Amino acid sequence: MLLEGRCMIRPVLLVASLLLISACSMITPTNPYKPVTPSSGQDPMASARSTSHAEQAKEPLSLKACLDLALANNPEVAAASKDIETANAQLDAARAGMWPKLNAVGGYTRYLDDIRLVQAEYNNQPGVFTADIFNADLILTIPLFTGGRVMNEISASDLLRQASERKLAFTREELIYNVSSLYYGILSQRHVVSSLEFSRDVLAKHVKRINDMIAVQKAARVDMLRTEVRVADLDQKLTQERSTQAIAQRALANLMGMEPADAPVMVGGDLAIPEGKIDSSEYLTHALDKRQDYLAARSSLEAQAKRVDAARSGNFPTVSLKGVYGERMSWDASDKPRSGKDDNGTSRDVGGIGIVIDFPLFDAGLTESRVREENAKLAAAQHRLRKLELQISLDVETAALNLESAQMRITSAQAALDQAKESLRIEFMKYDLGKGLIVDILDAQTALLQAEVSYYRALADYHSALARLRFSAGGDL
Question: Would you say the pTM of this structure is higher than 0.85?
Fold first, then answer.
């Protein structure tokens, strides 16, 4: 008896050992941090980065060059592109549900008592008996009716694929706005730094002039001290504004997918003065027709409705056509159970085909729970879509008001800048003639600096507000 038990355990241990060895040799852990490269072996991001370095070495980047590099290198855009590949794979997986399935199934079973290798086909048919049976089968399954589950899953996957494509488009539009906003901000900051440098140089030259006037007793020493204090204050502001400019350049490089060790981004161009006023009412009218995130949300909502229908299909029966063909084998078969065994290696063919109908009679509320879950997700998606509609209207209206405000600020800042230049010129003349005070010069210089900063920042705000309006409305009209 002990010997028979060992004979029964050995085949089981053999099969288990083979499966374990096979699993250890086939399973290779996936490295989540391995750099992703296309199948061609070339990294387009690396080539784009090298292109950016070459262009930076030649001349500062224009807005178009910044946008091209950002769209090619930005990690979020690359991730959104992979989301489309994911959605396409999910769509293919859903479509596979309507095709036949062919599986190869094999196994080994050790019985306590000898049994027939295959079932008898007629009464008193002789057979072979064994306790060890190997089976190898080909199983064909064709879905005939699934209650609409497969078609609804295909429709949901297709809608989610469309949503992924629209999310990519929105991500690109958002990146364009962010790059444009930083680009115009850097240009404005460059003018601010230049204005501070100019004001500091003017006051530094004026210190020398005061020293000359002190030597001939035409100015007081306190005038020079006040001017030097203002120069020191300008040095502090200049350091601060240069730091702000460097941070903006680093932020732009980050959007362009550049590494921290890369050279700072240098931008070229100037802030164009707007010509005429832009009517923003048309943007608000077409915002919901063009915003890609809104269209993506609508596609996701429609996909969720299909998921509700797919969950409801669990209440319906499924009908499948199933066919099986295979073989039953044994190395230790006999024509009599447990006696007179002959090692004849008997094997037999088996096969069959039929219709399988699966009626869901009781599933402990599983289908109902899934339907309630998908309905709750649908209601949540509807509320989020409504929230997005309100947010889009607010974004467009806010961008339109900011654009209108920037247009008016540019006009008033231009007038203030002209007046400040003329005021500073007059105060210098009065001081040289001995009829003015140093305080008046310092106040006029401060007013000129503030007017220049306000003017260039109003120009940058205008271009940023225009880019924001186009982004909020879903692009140019």
Answer: no
CA distance 161 to 154: 11
Neighbours of 200 (CB within 10 A): 20
399: closest CA among 467, 465, 473?
465
Q: Which residues contact residue 277 at a Cβ distance below 8 angstroms, ignoring those fewer than 6 apart?
A: 404, 407
DSSP character at residue 344: -
Mean pLDDT of successive 10-residue segments in the chain (477 residues)? 44 53 60 60 44 53 91 92 94 94 90 85 83 89 92 94 94 94 92 88 80 73 80 89 91 88 79 74 79 93 94 92 88 64 63 90 91 95 94 90 89 90 85 77 85 90 91 77
**Amino acid letter at 328?**
R
Question: How far apart, in Å, do the first and last CA atoms of the chain sit?
Answer: 89
The rounded distance, in Å, linking the Cα atoms of 266 and 248 is: 11
Number of other CB atoms surrounding residue 361 within 10 Å: 6
DSSP state letter for 28: -
3-state secondary structure of 106: strand
What tokens does 271 get? 């802030």
